[in-house]
Amino acid sequence: MPETIIRNEDFMRQIKDFSGMRFGRISPTDIDCFLDFGNKLFILVELKHGEAELPLGQKLALERLCDACESDTRSSCLIIARHDCGKDESIDVSQAVVSDIRWERKWHSWRDKNDTVRKLIEKVLVWKETGRAASDSES
Predict the structure, then answer these.
(1) CA atoms 3, 7, 30, 69: torsion sign
(2) DSSP single-letter state for residue 19
(3) Global confidence as pTM
(4) Phi and psi of 92, rounded to 5°?
(5) Computed from CA positions of residues 22, 84, 5, 103, in that sequence, does the dihedral angle turn out positive or negative?
(6) Where are the strands (E) in 62-111, listed by range?
(7) Domains and their CATH numbers in the chain
(8) If pLDDT is split at 50, 70 and 90, which confidence band does 8 have?
(9) How many CB atoms lie within 10 A of CB 96?
């Protein structure tokens, strides 16, 4: 397994208490991963365990954020990926399997069940650079 880039694992493991952050029915959500490729491409990743559902409120918040990042000069992609790691195991985000993506303001169920987060990001980089999908990335 590659060396982790977490600077302080003890702080990472701290429980964040959001109980005082409810506003009516609105409560905080998080983003599991964010990458900024030179302000030209933003990648957001949300991880779910197994077949856990993406709650509607979280889906809407992530979708709206992804769409708000779109502009004439910037693309954004939201990746929903799945893992089967136990609660005491580290999750290798690069190897989580993609189930859905939000790209160009549309949801796409991902057909290639062998695509990992890493593989899909590499495909998105090709799409962004060439303006067309890589030959094996049709969805």
Answers:
(1) negative
(2) G
(3) 0.86
(4) -85, 95
(5) negative
(6) 75-83, 97-103, 106-109
(7) 29-130 (3.40.1350)
(8) confident
(9) 26
